[in-house]
Fold each of these.
Amino acid sequence: MALPHARTFFSEPLATFFVLATFYVLFAKGTQRATAPFLAGVCYGLALLTRLDSIVVAPAIGLYICLRAIEQGNGRFDLWHQKVSLSELATVVGSRRFWAGVAAFAIGPIGYVLFQLTQNWLHFGNPFTSAYADQPEGIQFRTPLLAGLYGYFMSIGKSVFLFSPAIIFGLAGWWAFGRRHPSLSFSLIIAVVLLVVFHARWQNWAGGWCWGPRHIFMAHALALLPAAGYFADWGRLRRWLFAALMPVAFGVQLYGASQNFIDFYILYFRTPETLPNAYVLYSQEDLTPMRAVAPINDSIYVPQNSQWYRYWEMWQLGYTDNLWLRLWNRARGTEPPIR
């Protein structure tokens, strides 16, 4: 998914990189010394600076800091069989070293908050006024949760399994990964659930006309990490599955990166009345004659102008926004003029 999204706003891959770096530093260095939590906090502050919705994973990161401290204190968090004892938790939380690590981690996010409040005050005259203030829809969470979840997992327009097939390996590896790294696995589960539920309720949950479910890009990467557990036992069957699925998964992203999403928007997104129409399918009220035409690429709607076939049509019209494909067509003398 990073291939096509590195060509759009780039904020999703960059914020995801910083969140992954946050987890990595805590995993590799722990919390015993303040330098590691400080570095992790700087990474997380940069994630917030890149995309404010990175705040959604804050509870998962906070949980991992606690569980990682328990692990380093010779405690044990067993995701499958055993709970953390209250005495272990009290010992860790009551230690000076733990709170020193928390304070060191907080420096990065607090620095971001101060910077953002200053920027808001300079740009809008009020530190608590956001950049959404000039948009009519504002900040709303009005999408029915089940509708958003259906779109993210089952729809042709935004399903993570269609737009990121490699995520299947991550889901298949959760059990083995959780047994080996229980605290990290549990924290990642919390992060993924928070991201998906939060954005499923967002009024623009589908992320517009970009390739795939843009807003939960971070959830893709976090859910893919446990693939390490799936491939830890690298048998013949798993080699075959990898060899069969990964070319398909890579081809999906290459196809998504083959066109300019702005060209797609100009050609198709502004024609909602073009048959077949796309209508909202949230409730019975949406099935009345007064129902509104929906944005064409949002996922719970009747499919209209799907990227899966419209990108191919754009190729036939001469649109190709991938440099290597364009040079290949030019070398073969088959580059069509844009019609």
Amino acid sequence: MKPTAPEPVLPSRDDPVIRTGSEVVGGPAGRRISFGRGTAWWNATRVLILLAVVTFALGLVQKKPCYDGGWFGHGSQYSKACYSDMPHLFAGRGLDKGHVPYFDETGDPGMKYLEYPVITGGVMYFAGTLANAFGGGENGDLHDRQLWFVMINALIMMACAVVVVVAVARTSGRRPWDAAMVAAAPVLALNGIINWDLVAVAITAVAMMAWARRNIVLAGVLFGLATAAKLYPVLLLGPLFLLCLRAGRLKDFWKAGGAAVGAWLVVNLPVMIFAWDGWKLFYTFSQERGADFGSLWLILQQRYEPMDIDTLNTWVSALLLLMAAGIAALALCAPRRPRFAQLAYLIIAAFLFTNKVYSPQYVLWLLPLVVLARPRWRDVLIWQACEVIYFLGVWLYIESYSGGPHAKGLSQNAYHVAILIHLIGLLFIAALVVRDILWPDHDPVRADGSDDPSGGVLDDAPDVFTVGRGRDLYYGPDYDDEFGPGGAQDLPGKIYK
């Protein structure tokens, strides 16, 4: 007889914010609620998909002032907070003329080739080809074709947002409704079509789902493809290595890592071989750019002595390595092995904290990781409030010096405050995640006895390698009285649930 699947965790019972809010509609879900499959068409997945589509559509409505001319000099795309890179890069990177990314020059003297990884470049070229076809060809009205380009990309990004939500729901184990924090996220609405980041976020989310389902090679392939769309997903292999080392599952890591390298090479090698100068620009541009919007380094550059690019790169690299070393120590020394999503959030947050630029859409990298690492509505909403403040701050700051002599916006000092609020939001979630790792009884995911739903082969695996006092300990609210208050069950080779 097939075992019965465990009941899903319901937010109205589990989350304090949702539990309080549910009183408006009659209180938390009762004991007699049915969890049977097929009992209703509106299951969790379909509800989450609808919620994601509605949220994304509201974001498209918020961009309306730019459809009416803000992108084309007939109004401010900054004071209305509707800016997007998409229409500008359509013309600025030669896509309006049918230029092939990496192989053809853009025609822009400031950026000779397209400065994006190859999968993102492929999506841009595909959307550009359709926009030119629907907009009357290369001789058609440019503004019409720009709008077509944005709308086609918006549909692609909406599909990516749906993929992210479904993947998070299926990575969460017994907590599929946690994905509602992704589906209803204000940052998803505000940042969804600023750039093409949702492509990489979607592939990364599916890679994490594949790992959670123990499809090791597929997960590796997807991590490699995600890295070919945006660089940050490669950083997730670091936490996987540490966790597999601690659990004695390095063979599984090498399978995933090898598949990731292979997939990355398959999509990159043809461009590397036949269009080397265009391909390498993404990597050299990242090294050569200075301190830019949203970064801690911009505050330091604008308030103190500017650093030359080599000195800046050295400081950025040193701080990132220091933070990565701290995360590695936490992974190997924590009393109980951290969850994959927890370390994934910490390493990406460290990368963004130390990076030379923080574009508003980078928040989308973190969105699924925050929800998987710290699934509490209060904490996610506090973090998103910080990001919304930064979102508004950066556009108003740009408006202050680019909107003409009568433009109103944020001063430099006020913009620095907005940057600091964003950085505090990053550190706020990071502090909660570190606390959950060191004292797992605070972890919402492990409160019901689960180990690591996103861990795949790591879920419930015993430790074979630790540093210091790290052992298979469970500090939780439901251990036997014989251990006493604050005690721990210490039985090597078994993780207590």
Amino acid sequence: MNILYATLAGLIVGIVLGLTSDYFTSIDRPPARKTAESSKTGVAINILTGFSYGSISIVPPLFGIAIATIVAYQLAGIYGVTMSAVGIMATAGMIVSADAYGPIVDNAKGVAEQSGLGEEVIARADRLDAAGNTAKAITKGFAVSSAGLTVIALLVAYAEIVGLEVVDFMDPFVMAGTIIGVSIPPFLSALMILGVGKNAFRMIEEVRRQFREIPGLMEGKAKPDYARCVDIATKGALRELILPSVLTIVSPLAVGFILGKDALGGFLAGSILSGMVFAFLMSNAGGLWDNAKKYIEDGNLGGKGSEAHKAAVAGDTVGDPFKDTAGPSINTLLVVMSLTASLFAELIVLYALI
């Protein structure tokens, strides 16, 4: 029965996550509307407001994960913590379908605009898209929480493999490893966002080139070279992911072989803590900025074309790489680093310099 109760603890955390993400990203809730209102004073206040609400949204899920970790551990040890992660993902079918819903309704809005179906249809598609943004934020929250509890279990697995009974943060090597671990998730996020910026620049240049060189494109009489744009997006994405991918595998190995097994334990703990903070912040703030823009496009605060709308569009442009690129990638980062540490644990014990 203790295993069941540990699983239920995770399931309850999932409910907390869903309610939190819904509150902070929904177009009908105060955070999105207040962020939209802040757009009347310009881009800077829009971004500051959205970032602040995104930071506040970190607190409930992290408290929930902390409580669930304690409860599950008391019930069934580290296996209970693992089962609480299973509890969070017990609704996996709903989570996957909700995650797919977001892109579907987003593209439906694009089809409505391109097909000239009228303002009424586009307005309805906008509301569906707003619901899709909230659904995506909720599913990302489930993924972050599940990854967080899973990597806690993997950290314990690593500790058992190397015989590390206690992570002593007063040890200077452990402290150094922890500090390095804290720095990895924001560093990876920065690389991902910079990659988005570089690829966006290439795409804009290509679109401008096609408008210049393809006769009749601006008037809608000629077709653009879609394949070239897809090629830029695909190759650019693969190119920009090389360094983050290498970083994910090399960083735990470097810490382990240079600073030792204790330092690597601190490294994993530090990366888990900062990783969950950045993942929740980026996911919720991104959805919040997007729906603040949609609230204005619904005809509020001056509607489309107003100064508030221009500021909200800038905020949404910041939010897209937050919620669609940098935030979700942190889940993979944490899991891969933890698995790498466990996989090479015995070699680190034998060949570490310290």
Amino acid sequence: MAPKHSDPWKLVIPAPRRCTVDLEAEGFSLPEVVTLFSDAEGGSEVIQAALPRIDRICQGTVYRWKRAADAAPAAVRLTPGDVEEGHYELAVTSAGVTVRAGGTAGFSAGLATVVQAVLLLDHGQTVLPAVTILDHPAYPWRGFMVDVARHFLPMESLHRVLDVVWLLRLNRFHLHLTDDQGWRLPVSAYPLLTDVGGWRSDCTSEGGRYGGFYSAGELRELDSDAAALGITVVPEIDLPGHASAAITAYPQIGCSREVPGVETRWGIFPAVISPVSQAARDFIRTVFAAATEVFQGPYIHVGGDEVMTESWASLTSEAGQEDQLYQQIVRFMTETVLELGRVPLVWDEASRLDLPRDTIILNWREPEFAGAALERGYRIVLCPQARRTYLDHKHRDTPLEAGRLSVCTVHDSSRYEPLLYVREALGPDLPGADRVLGGQGNLWTEGVRFHSEVEYMGYLRLAAISEGLWTGTPGAAAWSEGFRERLEWWRGRMIASGVNVYPGAMEA
């Protein structure tokens, strides 16, 4: 149980950049029904999208939240101000709470801060202390990736994940929608992608089939809710490798007419999209175009990782030309995305290629690969596997703990800050440091089947990661001076809200 604390503003994760609390001044006495009002552009939409999320998040408190009909009686007011986009100003007086911002992202972040402060009040405490907050993020990319291909998560689960993405003031929700083990994105021109590729033989499931997929309407609703909160959904269609499900549905896009089957194993497999066939190129164009019809954000992630290029040996008569085919197909994918008016993203295996420099690289391997991508002129997002941001790894090194492949403690995640991470390995004079956009936590789901497991594996470490992404200073820098206590409060309030958050030790 976390100790009592009379100032919830000092417990918020991530911490506001400038926070001046006046415990001598009269704070705001919260009514049991907290009313919200805004007539500002973006503010009303934030309230509309946030209210159902607040109801879920605050279900362990005595407060209910609703929209006010006008400004006069509202407890929380979102008002326009001369504030830079993405920034916000927050003030609490005896008259109520005011959030000033210049647009959706600032209103959303400010309201999330208010909600978290209410959530973090001592039991029985009903007064929000008087405060003035001036706040903005250190990085423009602050994300969370969830893999829904290895194990399908129902749409309700994704909305609940979005609750926490919003509460932690993150702004990217990355969905890994396709892989060898399942295809979740509907494409009307290729219905077998979901009808066949969305399901796999699985002896542990009723009827011997496991899987599922989303409708275009469900994904649009999720995307619209996220956008109203200033959060961008980033769809990932992982090609040309990790394509067993797609090739099982449409063998003509592969390198032979063999049907690999939707994979029931984890790993890397030789079912790879053909880099030379017209059928494969038509498929890529159509699938990426379908993604732009569902998702309104500026990004499409095209994968490009772990491609078994030896599967293309039969397509060339000269040894070593598989790498040229890899260059050819990944460049085609990124150029297709650009032609559709979107920005392509790839995993860092593709950063050695000559791709359009608008392409963003997601670096998951060692920092040397991040340095190489910067030297080549790419913008990068850092999500390193090594004891930082891979949230499918075990919390602790014990056979009693869930997780795969490695260990990443809560303290490990709290050490994460993108530039600090890469500079520690490559030196302080990092060429292209201004092209480090930020970072994200990644939750792969080979060992994560249910929503409660997403909560257990992800939420506490994601809170630790969010600190460095928002403030530019890793939480571990003040681990013993307060950050660990803040995480304890976060954990306690999540548990009180019915969330299955990891309850164990935070250190190794």
